[in-house]
Design brief:
- With 445 residues, this protein is α+β, with helices and mostly antiparallel strands.
- The protein has eleven helices and twelve strands.
- It has helices at residues 14-39, 44-84, 100-135, 154-160, 164-167, 178-182, 222-263, 272-300, 313-323, 343-364, 411-421, and strands spanning 139-143, 149-152, 186-193, 196-209, 212-221, 309-312, 329-332, 338-341, 368-375, 378-385, 425-430, 437-444.
- A five-stranded antiparallel sheet has the order 2-1-5-4-3.
- Helix 2 packs parallel to helix 3 and helix 9 (313-323) crosses helix 10 (343-364).
Length: 445
């Protein structure tokens, strides 16, 4: 019984259509030939022989036509199937560019060669990325949408003290990493892992693989870097303190020994009072120098945190520039900008920079200018001088390093501390267009 729906006609296959069309095309000629044979003055035996030969030729022609049309298509199908299986070694030998089918096979061969090159490039890139990830000192974890671990590197193995085979497939909670994936995208924590404990920095982000979301977590051990920085800081501190203490204690010791020899003489020399006064004066002077040094050094650690309040930057710059009396500072007007800053600290910072710029410009008879401009999320204050420039720029921000007679060597250090306390930065570089220095202060808006 029919269910009332129209029945779909079964499609005739491509090969059958080729045979049917070829047969229909040759049928009129064959019929005409048979009519001529059977209606002509031929014997029955000859007529049957000719008929059999014609039918055999027809079958051979249909078979040959079928093979010439179907074989290239099957070859093309095999090549496409190989491409789907990422096998790019199969090629068609019948590819030629002087007919339509040959052009198709040529394009398929070119496509196969291109995919092979891309596959090799992708494999090389994947191998490079894998090697880089393995050698990175930070631990790298990749979790799927269910927070199951899918990828780790060697640093992660060392951090968790387990081989990759035992880590893959584990849940983030089992590895004590779930809290890092649930918190802020980045931060620092004090943690204890099977492979080590201390202060760790972490960062995680969402990535996609085959359209599925994954979590990429990077954990870096900060303790070792902090300890190295602390060691270097102590070395610099001891070096600076030792240098200054030796500079003061060596003459004090020498003068003390000389005075001791003077007062030990019997009878005392006639000018012993003069020698004693000069010696004690030198000792007092070096002691004062040492006291000033220690007071100056202590000021580096007593910088209070900035008290932020709205500040009109242009007004502040004009006021500070007017304080310099040795040389007129050219103020290039900029946009009106209000920032949140500690006005007293920023003022002291600018005073230090302008004092250095003016002292440099006075050496060459040049000028000093100050300008400011807005940048995305920040404002840049530029102080240009026409002095001789700077040499040994790597030591500019080393405490107590100075090239000026009588300089303390802490002005730039304090200035950079103030800038960084406001979330900004301070750099000094030689100008490119002429001699001189550009001090560039960047502060967040």
């Amino acid at each position: 019984m029919s269910d009332g729906r129209p029945r779909r006609r079964k499609a005739v296959g491509y090969e059958r259509r080729i045979v049917v069309v070829s047969l229909l095309a040759s049928l009129p000629g064959i019929v005409a030939a048979l009519l001529l044979v059977w209606m002509g003055d031929f014997t029955a035996r000859l007529a049957w022989t000719v008929t059999a030969i014609l039918m055999l030729v027809l079958l051979i022609a249909l078979y040959s036509l079928h093979e010439h049309l179907v074989h290239p298509l099957r070859t093309l199908s095999n090549i496409l199937a190989a491409l789907r299986e990422e096998d790019y070694s199969i090629r068609s030998r019948g590819a030629r560019d002087d007919d339509a089918l040959g052009e198709v096979l040529v394009e398929v061969n070119e496509l196969s060669a291109m995919l092979r090159e891309q596959r090799l490039d992708a494999m090389e890139a994947a191998a490079l990325v894998s090697a880089v990830i393995s050698e990175i000192d930070a631990a790298i974890f990749v979790f799927d949408g269910e927070r199951r671990l899918r990828l780790v590197n060697r640093a992660a193995e060392r951090l968790l003290d387990r081989p990759t085979e035992r880590l893959l497939g584990s849940h983030a909670a089992e590895l004590d990493l779930d809290s890092l994936l649930s918190g802020d995208p980045s931060g620092t924590v004090e943690r204890s892992f099977p492979g080590g404990s201390g202060r760790f920095g972490y960062r995680w982000s969402l990535v996609r693989e085959k359209g599925m979301p994954h979590s990429l977590l990077v954990v870096a051990d900060l303790s070792r870097a902090l300890r190295e920085e602390e060691r270097q800081a102590w070395q610099r501190l001891v070096r600076v303190l030792g240098h200054e203490l030796n500079n003061s204690l060596a003459p004090i010791k020498s003068i003390s020994e000389s005075l001791e020899r003077v007062v030990a003489k019997e009878p005392l020399p006639s000018d012993w009072r003069d020698d004693l006064g000069r010696g004690l004066g030198i000792i007092s002077s070096r002691a004062d120098t040492l006291t000033r040094f220690m007071s100056t050094y202590a000021s580096l650690t007593r910088l209070p945190p900035p008290t932020l309040a709205p500040v009109d930057l242009g007004e502040l710059i004009r006021r500070v520039s007017a304080l310099e009396q040795r040389l007129a500072v050219a103020v290039d007007p900029g946009p009106r900008i209000r920032i949140r800053a500690d006005a007293a600290q920023i003022e002291q910072l600018l005073i230090n920079l302008l004092r250095n710029a003016v002292e440099a410009a006075l050496q060459t008879g040049g000028g000093v200018s100050i300008s400011w401009r807005r940048r995305p999320g920040a404002v840049e204050i530029s102080i240009l001088d026409e002095g001789p420039g700077i040499s040994g720029g790597t030591n500019l921000f080393v405490p107590f390093y100075t090239t000026k007679p009588g300089g303390s060597g802490i002005g730039l250090v304090l200035s950079r501390q103030i800038a960084e306390a406001h979330g900004g930065s301070l750099t000094l570089e030689n100008r490119e267009e002429r001699t001189g220095v550009e001090a560039l202060l960047r502060l967040p808006v």
